[in-house]
Hints:
- This protein has helices at about 10-20, 70-80, 95-100, 115-120, 140-155, 170-185, 200-210, 230-240, 245, 260-270, 285-290, 295-300, 300-315, 325-330, 335-345, and strands spanning about 60-65, 85-90, 105-110, 125-130, 155-160, 190-195, 200, 215, 225-230, 250-255, 275-280.
- By secondary structure, it is α/β, with parallel strands linked by helices.
- The strands form 3 sheets. A 7-stranded parallel beta sheet has the order 3-2-1-4-5-6-10, with helices on both faces. Strands 7-9 form a two-stranded parallel sheet.
- α1 (about 10-20) packs across α11.
- The radius of gyration is 20 Å and the shape is globular.
- Residues about 1-55 have low confidence and may be disordered.
Amino acid sequence: MSGVPFSGWPSPALWKLLTLCSSSPEDGASGRIPAEGGALVVELNAWSGSASERGQGDDIVILVTAANGNQGRHLVPRLLQAGQVLRACVRSEESAQALRSAGVTDVVVGDIADPDVMARAMRGVDKVYYVGPTLHPEEREMGFVAIDAAREAGVKHFVFSSVLHAILTDLTQHEVKRDLEEHLLSSGIEFTILQPANYMLRHRLKPAVEQGLFRLSWALDRYQSMVDLSDVAEVAAAVLADSGRHAGATYELVAPGRYTALDIATVISDVLGREVAAERIDADQFTAASLGADHEICFPYHTGAARAISKRYSSHDFIGNPNVLTWLLGREPTSFKDFVQREVELLHPLGR
């Protein structure tokens, strides 16, 4: 999946964000865990009808889900700078306040698993950029709800953030996204599907910078492709701005280069000017470190997903081709070394 950790051992809080909710702190539904299988809590701000009712006239309205997450934090500023009319959907009031401070005036706060929330969020919207809650047990159902709500609301263009090689059925999160792609293709809505490789993320780089040790829960000699989130956001903004050109397209978003864990450690070492080692840890050890020793009982979905990731990526590479991303950007995509150099400067003085 995009969002498979490429760096090591996150804090318990980060792992819970990665697994219980999504691939980022705001990539998906409510972070509250249902008690005894109960319904997820819904928090929805008062919302005032369609775009025209809000006085936006003929403006094209774009809905971005997970708008304060990994992708949203890169995409929303681009859309605002371009003068797009935005509605943001997030799961917490804290995220909503961050977006309002950034200039987003139309924010829906709620759980995307709730059909009423999605129906209200979609009303009066022309285009949608949908980021779902990766590694959430209800990710498939949430995606179905979003697509169905978009169809009912008459959305003209649905852009779905999927994953590179969604066809892989031995990875739970890939199979879910494959099913969502099929549902979208069958919905009758004009669509574009983006299939990013594993994300290059700052919080996944920090342990290697701080501790000098890059940990991975699969074979250290298997190759993976990656992509910079700022490049993904640039493509997403272009797709949303020119729906006619990109309608019906499926784009693999892959940066140049294929990296083993050993290669990744070497790149980080070269940028830092000091040695960073690579170490493999067991998938259950990885999960227990964040979710506790009882993770297999309390969090069976996440435990199974972690084991499947480890098994797949220990026996197969996860690689793609950078041509499509290069063509879409009209330039060379950000390399992993460029990413590390940029982020180390931002992490200073941790990095040097």
